[in-house]
Amino acid sequence: MNLPVWVNGRLMPSEQAAVSVFDHGLLVGDGVFETVKCVGGAPFALTRHLDRLRSSARSLNMPEPDVEAITAGVRACLAEAPAWPLGRIRITYTSGPGPLGSDRGDGGGTAVVIVAEQPSFPATADVTVVPWPRNERGALAGVKSVSYGENAMALFYAKARGGGEAIFGNLAGSLCEGTGSNVFVVHGGRLVTPTLASGCLAGVTRALTLEWCGGSEEDVPLSALYEADEAFLTSTTRDIQPIRMVDQTVLPAAPGPVTAKAMRIFAERSAADLDP
Ligand SMILES: Cc1ncc(COP(=O)(O)O)c(C=O)c1O
User: Fold this and answer.
1) Distance in Å, CA 77 to ligand 1 centroid
2) Which residues, 6+ apart, have CB-to-CB distance to 235 below 8 Å?
3) Which residue has the CA at smallest separation from atom 5 of ligand 1?
C-alpha cells in the first residue's frame, strides 16, 4: 500500500515525495531519526520520542527540529493509514542540503515522516555477538543518528549466521546494545541493563522497562550475556523480546520468570497509557 509521505510540511504521494540529492542525510549521514510504534492507529510514547529527537539534534549541534510541525506530520500520515494492529512511524530530520564535503549547508533542515505496517517480531530472538565494538567515547555514542552503517553491517553479519539481532560490546569489553534494541540480563534473579555510559542508546522501551518493572543500570562484561539465566531485548516495535540463544549458547529459559513478569507488566502499563 502506497501511503502518503510528509516532507517539510507537505503531505504528498509516496512516489512524488523527494528530497534533494545534496541532502546531508544522504551525502554524509548528518541527521537524526526516531522510530515510533503505533497501535491501532495511535502513536505510542510520542512525547518521549520527540524529546529524544530534540536531544539527538542538540548533540549534533543541528538546529532544533520543529516538533510541532513534525507532530502534525505524524497525525496527517496516520489519518491516511489503516488502524494496523502494529505500525511503525519513521521520523527523519537531517541538516538539509549542503556542500559535497562535511561542512553543513545553511538552508535549513529536512524533516520527513513515513508510516508503514510493522509485522510483529518472533516470540523469541536468537542473537549474534559481533566482532566490532561500540565506541562509548565516540561523538555519536548514544545519539540516534542516521549514520547507521555500523548497525546495518552488524545486522547483516548476524543474519548471515542465523541471528535475528546483533549484539555489540564496547571498547571496555562490556555488554552494550543491539543494532536496534537495548539488552537486559538476569543473574540470580537480578535484572540488569548496561548504563548509558556503555555507549548504548537511551531507549524509550529501556527507560519504561526500568520504571515499570524495576532492574538496575550496571555495566557487566560481554560474557555476562552468555552466562545469563535469562536475557531480553527491548525496543519500540518489539517491546520486550526474550533471548533464546546467544551465538551457539542456548539460555536456560526464554522467557524465564523475570522476563515473563516484565512482559506482562509492560503490556498492561503500555495499554493503559499511550503517552507515558
Ligand atoms: C541502537 C539502538 N539501541 C536501542 C534502541 C531501542 O530504543 P527504543 O526502545 O527507543 O526503540 C534502538 C531503537 O531502534 C536503537 O536503534
Assistant:
1) 22
2) 178, 180, 181, 182, 203, 205, 241
3) 181
Question: Which of 96, 74, 66 lies closest to 3 in space, CA to CA?
Answer: 74
Nearest to 213, CA basis, from 228, 199, 226, 232: 232
Q: Which three cell numbers stand for residue 125?
A: 530472538
Residue 111 grid coordinates: 524533516
Tell me the per-residue pLDDT of 108-132, one tens digit each, with 9 for 90 and over. 999 999 999 999 999 999 999 999 9
Kindly report, residue by residue over 222-249, the tens digit of the pLDDT.
999 999 999 999 999 999 999 999 999 9
Q: Compute, in angstroms, the gap from residue 10 CA to the centroid of ligand 1.
A: 28
Q: Which residues contact 253 (CB under 8 A, 6 or more apart)?
A: 229, 230, 259
For the chain, the straight-line distance linking the first and the last C-alpha, in angstroms and rounded, comes to 30
Q: 99 alpha carbon to ligand 1 midpoint, in Å?
A: 30
